[in-house]
Amino acid sequence: MTEWAFWGCLPFLAAAFVTDILSMRIPNRITVSTMIAGLLVQGIMNGWQGLLFAGGGAAAGFILLLIMYMIGAVGAGDVKLFAGIGAWTGILFTLQVLMYSVFFGALIGWIIVLRRKETGSRLRKIFSRVTGFMLLQSPGILKGNRSEMLRFPFMLAVIPGSVCAYLYF
């Protein structure tokens, strides 16, 4: 990834951040334009090699976030946005953004849980699900009810995750 790719992606991340904070949604006009712009810019700047770089990054971001979406960890807008991040920055940088974002997301989640004083009940539910999964070997046990899920805008974690990935890449 080159430095210009990060800076080119940043306005799209800022727009996604604002809409996610205000409405807990990232609209398609942001996610799709992020991906198309990343593919176009990489193709123009680096030719076919740039398109392969962008396509691989988009696929990696999409597939990994799709898995997280299927277990209920993120929304559909986050999935498409990570495809766009991948189109701009490639596979390795996208993986780093994801790793840092998950870390920051876990940190934010635990801060919320501690402030709500739900630590004991949340830990019991986690222990119960993991134990059930290990005994019954059924992945469906790990997925909680929609009402039990802790919800917050994932962009609160993606922005610092992106900055950390940029600083340490």
TrEMBL record:
- Supply the PANTHER family for this chain: PREPILIN LEADER PEPTIDASE_N-METHYLTRANSFERASE-RELATED, TYPE 4 PREPILIN-LIKE PROTEINS LEADER PEPTIDE-PROCESSING ENZYME
On the tree of life, the source organism's domain of life is Bacteria
Family in the record: Belongs to the peptidase A24 family.
The yes or no answer to whether the keyword Ribonucleoprotein is present is no
A molecular function annotated in GO for this UniProt entry is:
aspartic-type endopeptidase activity
Q: Which UniProt keywords apply?
A: Membrane, Transmembrane, Transmembrane helix
Protein source organism? Paenibacillus monticola
Q: Give the transmembrane region(s).
A: 51-71, 91-114
Organism ancestry: Bacteria, Bacillati, Bacillota, Bacilli, Bacillales
Name the record gives this protein:
Prepilin peptidase
